Amino acid sequence: MMASETPLSDVRFLTVAEVATIMRVSKMTVYRLVHSGELEAIRVGRSFRVPEQAVNQYLRAAFVGTV
């Protein structure tokens, strides 16, 4: 689990818009990944925050999956 790797106080949380920019996809795509469980996120009020590490893990897994 991600929380065991990094103290929560050190986790950098990204907005959906920031994740979309990093991944070069639409915000809708990010929401789909979050809702499907493919991308880890926490809910803050009505919005989501995605741990930066979760984005890195998702992208790494995506690269491995295409080889």
UniProtKB/TrEMBL annotation:
Domain of life: Bacteria
Pfam families per the UniProt record, alphabetical: HTH_17
Domain Helix-turn-helix residues, every copy: 13-61
Signal sequence interval, chain numbering: none
GO molecular-function terms, A-Z: DNA binding
InterPro entries the record matches: DNA-bd_dom_put_sf, HTH_17, SinI_DNA-bd
Protein name per Swiss-Prot or TrEMBL: Helix-turn-helix domain-containing protein
